[in-house]
Hints:
The protein has helices spanning 7-19, 24-33, 39-42, 55-58, 60-76, 94-102, 107-112, 122-131, 201-204, 224-236, 282-291, 302-309, 311-319, 324-338, 345-348; strands spanning 22-23, 83-88, 113-118, 139-142, 153-158, 167-172, 175-183, 189-193, 217-220, 238-247, 257-260, 263-265, 275-277, 280-281, 295-301, 349-355. By secondary structure, it is an alpha/beta fold. The strands form 3 sheets. Strands 2, 3, 4, 5, 10, 14, 15 and 16 form an 8-stranded mixed beta sheet that branches. Helix 8 links the parallel strand 3 (113-118) and strand 4 (139-142). The longest helix has 17 residues, at 60-76. The radius of gyration is 21 Å and the shape is globular. The structure holds S-adenosyl-L-homocysteine.
Amino acid sequence: MADGRSPLEEEIRRRIxxxxxxxxxxxxxxxxxxxxxxxxxxxxxxxxxxxFITAPEVSQxxxxxxxxxxxxxxxxxxxPANVRLVELGPGRGTLMRDALRAAKVMPDFRAALVxxxxxxxxxxxxxxxxxxxxxxVPLTWHRSLADVPEGPxxxxxxxxxxxxxxxxxxxxxxxxxxxxxxxxxxGDFHFSIDRDPIxxxxxxxxxxxxxxxxxxxxEWRSDQMALELSRRVVRSGGVALLIDYGHVQSAIGDTLQxxxxxxxxxPLLAPGEVDLTAHVDFQALVRAAESMRARTHGxxxxxEFLRRLGIVERAAAxxxxxxxxQATAVQxxxxxxxxxxxxxxxxxxxxxxxxxxxxxxxxGFDDESR
Length: 370
Ligand code: SAH
């Protein structure tokens, strides 16, 4: 280690010196999931002492409603005797724990399921194993969705897709160039642009995007995860529920952000020490799902989705008879999860479901009106 640089910073530096400036997606992959020094490999990001708070960590109501949603989806699937309840990126296991508790009201659903947790972080896997030590439902862990055995499945992913690496392209006079990370003359990391334009990039861009101006940024992710999810829900029957910060329509904009200690920091300053995310392009997910003949439901804003699932009634039940302080906490969690302020969770976060094509409407999505 030189100049107080972390081992990951040293490694990225070496790679850039040998291979040239590094695409943002590769930088993000190394920062988050490097097998020794990645952020998720070495940190528990969640909770008051961590870097950020997610919806299931705000209130038990979130996981409970998702548990009931999963039970309703299982009914819509024809109540298969064996179903895999899969969670991608389960964090501290809070959502799944609340979901399984709520699903106790549907014993036949609980009896049918095996839980599969897909987690890349050994630290979080340990926390999840502790959270489920007394569970009466069988659970197994995997590093990737591909390792979950084939068969009917219900997939839940909250704030998972926004942690998958994102590519960025910058509009220049001669077309779109990939955005890269380079070492500047001052020896620090800086954003830059790849020398050559990306061939035929205009053809890849969604038609509804207005012509971009010089300097503007477009972000995209690999379709691999959406294609694999869609293939599985179509082939084995099932549903996937993706909930994330993002936009309904593909859009221009740089949404790459780093959060450390509940504050925004520069994405280039402390690789592996801070969380990196970028908003989800739901239109791109829908396009990938439809190309695999999956049915899509939504996206809808989280506030609307949770209200349709009954969060207001659930909050009222939790408040009834509770001590004043607890009732106030339930009320403020309700507002936080459903807030329609421009930067509120209720508005910024969207829910999208994918299903087998013949599956009927799903709770929370306004499918009936189609
Ligand atoms: N769903 C949880 C945690 C969100 S944080 C919640 O809502 O609280 C993102 C989660 O995804 C973490 O558990 C992280 O370790 C996991 N993760 C990130 N990238 C991953 C990958 N490529 N494969 C599997 N899990 C991943």
